[in-house]
Amino acid sequence: SEMLSLSGVTKAYARGKPSEVNVLQGIDLMLQKGEVVGLVAPSGAGKSTLLHISGLLDVADAGDIRVAGEETRGLSDRKRTALRRQAIGFIYQFHHLLPEFTALENVVLPQLANGVSQQDAEARALKLLDKVGVAARAGHRPAQLSGGEQQRVAFCRALANKPLLLLADEPTGNLDPATSDVVFAALMEVVREEGLTALIATHNMELAGRMDRVVRLDQGRVLDKS
Ligand code: ADP
Ligand code: ADP
């Protein structure tokens, strides 16, 4: 079944002004449940914009977006937020972990906010930290972790509430190539184990090659779908 669908999605910044930038000019894209798709394009091509619109953090100027089968056009802000919290996990290039909390707490907190009990949240957090190889770091704060470990914890936080759709923007872009390689492998493993659908923006063709397929953006459109 389909997990994310965009059709005819357009987006411009500074619309109607001399500085107008037409970033997305008619995006058609569909991700089936369980598909892991790479989003590859040069810097400035609109990858972040596309991820933000897909993740209901930003609104398109035109077009239709369905998330987990739900049409999002015309949803109230409250319903968009509810759908985002229930269905979508985000990972960024920088971890954005809360500095005053431990790795475990960073993965537990979003679950508590979603009504999960402390005990269940900790069990889920430890399971995820273990899957990506940082269970031994559960009691450390972000500043005490390496860049790769911080990013692994950020993956766990993004997956804590069992999202259906994972959106990742250069998830290992901040890491040196060797670290990026192993951290990306850990991400792919947990994504597969959890049966997630994922759209992952990257510059790195080698990483993109490990995904089910690659989508390229060119002039605001999807260039090829193979
Ligand atoms: P990418 O993630 O591929 O680097 P972005 O989606 O971040 O691309 O940006 C696409 C284009 O839109 C760039 O030219 C960028 O400068 C422009 N842009 C992004 N956000 C804004 C904004 N809030 N206001 C104006 N222009 C923006
Ligand atoms: P929370 O209460 O957990 O912050 P939100 O619904 O506000 O939940 O956000 C859901 C996800 O979207 C979180 O991962 C958050 O970091 C991210 N997010 C929220 N607002 C923005 C934004 N303006 N830009 C980028 N990411 C955002």
Automatic annotation (TrEMBL):
<dbReference type="GO" id="GO:0005524">
    <property type="term" value="F:ATP binding"/>
</dbReference>
<dbReference type="InterPro" id="IPR017871">
    <property type="entry name" value="ABC_transporter-like_CS"/>
</dbReference>
<dbReference type="InterPro" id="IPR003593">
    <property type="entry name" value="AAA+_ATPase"/>
</dbReference>
<dbReference type="InterPro" id="IPR003439">
    <property type="entry name" value="ABC_transporter-like_ATP-bd"/>
</dbReference>
<dbReference type="InterPro" id="IPR017911">
    <property type="entry name" value="MacB-like_ATP-bd"/>
</dbReference>
<dbReference type="InterPro" id="IPR027417">
    <property type="entry name" value="P-loop_NTPase"/>
</dbReference>
<protein>
    <submittedName>
        <fullName>ABC transporter ATP-binding protein</fullName>
    </submittedName>
</protein>
<keyword id="KW-0547">Nucleotide-binding</keyword>
<dbReference type="InterPro" id="IPR015854">
    <property type="entry name" value="ABC_transpr_LolD-like"/>
</dbReference>
<dbReference type="Pfam" id="PF00005">
    <property type="entry name" value="ABC_tran"/>
</dbReference>
<feature type="domain" description="ABC transporter">
    <location>
        <begin position="4"/>
        <end position="226"/>
    </location>
</feature>
<keyword id="KW-0067">ATP-binding</keyword>
<comment type="similarity">
    <text>Belongs to the ABC transporter superfamily.</text>
</comment>
<keyword id="KW-0813">Transport</keyword>
